[in-house]
Amino acid sequence: MAEVAAGLWAAEEVVSTGIYAGVAGHAIAKPTMPLKATFTQIGSTSDDASRSSLTRSHHTLTVIGEKAYIFGGQTTGGGLATNNIHSIALPTEVTTAPEYQVIPALAAKSDGLVPTSRTRHSACSLKRQVAIYGGCDEAGDVLDEGAKIWLYDTDKLTWDTLEPATHPERVPPPRRDGILLAHDGNLIALGGEDSSGAALTDTWHFDCLTKTWNQLPHAPAAIASAVIVGDALYGISGSETLSSEVHRLDIKLYAKQPSAWQTVPFPTNPLVPGPRPRSNGGLVPVTTGYGRNYLLYFFGDRHGAVEKGNLLQWSDLWTFQLPSSDLEVKPTTSISEAIKPAKIKDNIRAKFGADTGGSSWAEVEVEPPGDLQAHEGKVHPGPRSSFGYDITTDGRSVVLWGGSNAAGEPEGDGWIIGLS
Q: In whole angstroms, how far apart are CA 163 and each of 116, 168, 216?
């Protein structure tokens, strides 16, 4: 441990003193954005017009290990999908699991319950479980389940629940289109709409050990998408066609001084790079390694009046550069794991007066398939919204399935977006 600490100190000395000796090069000068994206189709299904069809929208997709788990949503004609889990094995060098399974809803206990069919719900991975929260029924009515969290065990293939055990008066109200995120073995819920259709700005933390909900500070605006990076909650809002905001809340549950939301506005017009306002799109944290972190914001429904000839959805991808990771030392950390080159590079660029790219947007460059002539089928999902998506375990790719296309019809194909 002492050797690691000494190595880190030496690395910091190189940064702070070597800079004045003129240490700079191509790696330091090279901009950190734009990133490049490749699209790979991993599957497709024809619409059989049944409730089990994977041609759907407003569902969720959750990645756990090397599988993606699809739940809920609406099929063709707006009917609810079944409450089955659809499991899809993601491509790997060695894939031993079944490529595709449909798993019926079974309770973990003989007298247990399983979730009803739903749409416009939220989901996230909680260790080896898929956590499901909220949503609405086929009529569009918000489900009132008393702030209950449904848990699907991907090992036992059964359902269980997490319900508040204390302070029943201190629970989040029912909602659809909310956001559910995992943090340090617990859950955070925010946003969405209540039963009247009013936008919600409340933010809640659920302690999975004590089974207690605690309210965090309200967001300064209605959050369309949110993610957690480290110990910070990031959200994006946009109520105007020419501006949007990135919001950040440090997650400090028991601090003497409660944290407050911080907001970074950004213009969204043709003269300044940045994503236009949208809803039902995707937002995930991604990394290119070496301590470099981004938010990836992509696709979704257009906001405001749609000009004649324009599509109803966006097909673009944008990255927002986050602060690079700090040096990190753990009992099992090696020097190569602890030192974050991105942090060192940013320190050097800052001392030269160069732009580090932090808190800025850039549009992702989409690269064509390696061999266009040999490629069969689509090369890009096209404009889309209301799809299921999640980040892969390495944080460098996104898995996407289904959603609504430019004609407002549900799709039944899956994609992996690789980033570099």
A: 16, 10, 19
Answer whether 0.90 is exceeded by the pTM: no
| Residues 130, 142: Cα–Cα separation, whole Å | 21
What is the residue type of 48? D
Q: Give pLDDT, residue 376.
A: 63
* Average pLDDT of the residues of the chain: 84
- CA 191/CA 179 separation, integer angstroms: 6
Contact 76, 410 (CB under 8 A): yes
User: Going by C-beta distance under 8 Å and a sequence separation of 6 or more, which residues neighbour residue 371?
Assistant: none
Contact partners, residue 6, CB within 8 Å, separation at least 6: none
Sign of CA dihedral 202, 319, 250, 329: positive
> How far from 51 is each of 77, 133, 323, CA to CA, in Å?
10, 21, 44
Give pLDDT, residue 269: 72
**Residue 2 dihedral angles phi and psi, to the nearest 5°:** -65, -40
Using CA atoms, how far residue 312 sits from 78, 299, 300, 409, in Å, is 18, 11, 9, 12
Backbone angles phi, psi at 351, to 5 degrees: -70, -25
Which long-range contacts (C-beta less than 8 Å, at least 24 apart) are formed by 142-146? Answer: 142/174, 142/175, 142/176, 142/193, 142/194, 142/195, 143/116, 143/118, 143/174, 143/176, 144/174, 144/195, 145/174, 146/171
List Cβ neighbours of 72 (8 Å cut-off, separation of 6 or more): 58, 59, 60, 80, 81, 83, 117, 118, 119, 121, 132, 135
pLDDT digits (tens, 9 = 90+) for 221-264: 999 999 999 999 999 998 666 778 999 999 988 778 889 999 99
Which of the four pLDDT bands, split at 50, 70 and 90, describes residue 305?
Answer: low
Please check whether residue 8 is in contact with residue 334, taking contact to mean a CB–CB distance below 8 angstroms: no
Strand order in the sheet with 410-419: 365-366, 36-44, 410-419, 397-404, 388-391
Query: Taking Cα atoms as reference points, which of 190, 176, 189 lies closest to residue 120?
Result: 176
